[in-house]
Amino acid sequence: MYDLGYFRNNIGSIAARLADRGFTVDMEAFRELDSQRRAALAESEKLKAQRNAESQEIGKLKKTGADTADMQQRVREMGELISKLDGEAAALDEQFGQLMAGIPNTPHESVPAGKSAADNVEVRRWGTPPTFAFTPKAHWDLGPELGILDFDRAAKITGARFAVYMGLGAKLERALINFMLDVHTQEHGYAEVLPPFMANKDSFYGTGQLPKFEADLFKLEGTDYYLVPTAEVPVTNLYRNETLDMDALPIKLTAYTPCFRSEAGSYGRDVRGIIRQHQFQKVELVKFSRPESSYEELESLTRDAEDILQRLGLAYRTVVLSTGDIGFSSAKTYDIEVWLPGLNDYKEISSCSNFEAFQARRAQIRGKSAKGKTEFVHTLNGSGLAVGRTWLAIIENYQQADGSVVVPEVLRPYMGVDVIRGCK
Questions:
Q1: pTM score, two decimals?
Q2: 59 and 187 share a domain?
Q3: What is the mean pLDDT of residues 154-168?
């Protein structure tokens, strides 16, 4: 969300920049609502001042025994008009808030212009995709054959786009969560958080999922709660409506949560396997930064996520998203894409974003320096990593001709085995 004064005074340049990301600002609607709202508030304040002055005059006249009936009637009429104007202003405020809440963040000047993901720009890649002396299998075939992944029973229990991990498959998922949390807390300097797996409407508004993306969420009937689509929501909102010590920033937090997404706009994409599920696990990285250093923090956060893939020996590439592919709340995003032999392509496994003050303004998260200056902090987050996609990347990249899967060396202390073999 934008500072209203800044948006009002710079609407033309903001609209031009948002046009680069395919969003059209209805400047006429903004100006009309803004004008009506300001006029109603100004008239109400004028009448309130007039009513107060006349009320004081009535008090003085009453002491002299003068007849104030006409003045009192006029004050009552002013009160009724003030109530009407306040009601109109409140209604206009709600419309105005909805309009402003639906306007995405302005992309940072370093974000490449583009219309879609096809215009994303690769900035680096690491590792070499493996070569096989046999035809490699996709995880949706290899997992069930090994007895570590069961789609049929998951469909029976719940429905499509769910999976049951079995045996060493379940242990691999747990091992990855523990490995990621250990690296991020013991070596990258993040503090671990275990937040609630559901959050209220205010929390989702704060991070930008509401009101625009409600169709992507699972809501608990009869409550104000939604299941979290990412730990970004509860962890960022830890400090909603708070003022942090700006001189103590950055605050670096990491959290494991299951994530729940309706995938309302996926339109049949990635329907096979566990690439796009309604429920999946993720380890999230969240930062609260001083504004002047937030882009340095974005680079280090992205490197922290990449480090997990390097330790696992998984080839990947990192791309900066174009204006046509960047998320609603983000000012700049890097996607890290891991190599998947089953798709013979790279697939996103982490998105690392700087939201600048966009989320902090919605969630009212400020920072105050020792000199007394108060301003909105910058928030950042990224997957460190999506656990399910890391799981399938290991299964596909480390598969052997006999159908077994070699366990990456860094995971062996967590797994207790070097190789995953059939366990049916």
A1: 0.90
A2: no
A3: 96
